[in-house]
Amino acid sequence: MTIADIKKNAESKMAKSIEALKSDLQKVRTGRAHPGILDQVHVDYYGSMVPISQVANVSLLDARTISVTPWEKGMGAKIEKAIRESDLGLNPSSQGDLLRVPMPALTEERRKELTKVVRHEGENAKVAVRNLRRDANDHLKRLLKDKEISEDDERRAQDDVQKLTDKVVAEIDKLVHAKEADILAV
């Protein structure tokens, strides 16, 4: 493995950490509706549990309401039950084939709890990035020990890995601050 391979590997894994954080932050619900909120809700479909998006069309009616349109007649009641029983605190209402899922307004206390959750997710992402930095530095030390690279090359490569880590941590901080601002906005 060369220095370039180690850097590229660390960079791609750190990018995946950022994508995972973005995905996790989308699941934290703000006062606005987002179709992705229902992604983790599963419904019984002929004996197997599948995501709602595989048995219905999930879209936005307005900024605070999600609409769920089942593809089959009998699925409406099952989907409604699955949403109601999820830990999201949502209460869907049925209008014929269409399910309306209004997003309740967040209380100040709940907003503060959600900011703590967002900070925790951000901290987990930073820990993952730091672990990737440590792994990359270990690989570089191994190359130095095996005399495949010089001490100067190892030092420069470690500095590059540190700069990459700093850049990714700054990106994580930016994402966390943006989500906190989104949650605290009334």
Automatic annotation (TrEMBL):
Coiled-coil spans are: 140-167
Q: Where is the Ribosome recycling factor domain positioned along the sequence? A: 21-184
What InterPro entries is this protein classified in?
Ribosome_recyc_fac, Ribosome_recyc_fac_dom, RRF_sf
GO terms (molecular function) for this protein are: ribosomal large subunit binding
Q: Where in the cell is it found?
A: Cytoplasm
Q: Name one GO biological process term.
A: cytoplasmic translational termination
Keywords, ordered alphabetically: Coiled coil, Cytoplasm, Protein biosynthesis
GO CC terms of this entry: cytosol
What is its biological role?
Answer: Responsible for the release of ribosomes from messenger RNA at the termination of protein biosynthesis. May increase the efficiency of translation by recycling ribosomes from one round of translation to another.
Say which family it is in. Belongs to the RRF family.
Q: Which PANTHER family match?
A: MITOCHONDRIAL RIBOSOME RECYCLING FACTOR PSEUDO 1, RIBOSOME RECYCLING FACTOR
Q: What protein name does the entry list?
A: Ribosome-recycling factor
Q: Which organism is it from?
A: Ideonella aquatica
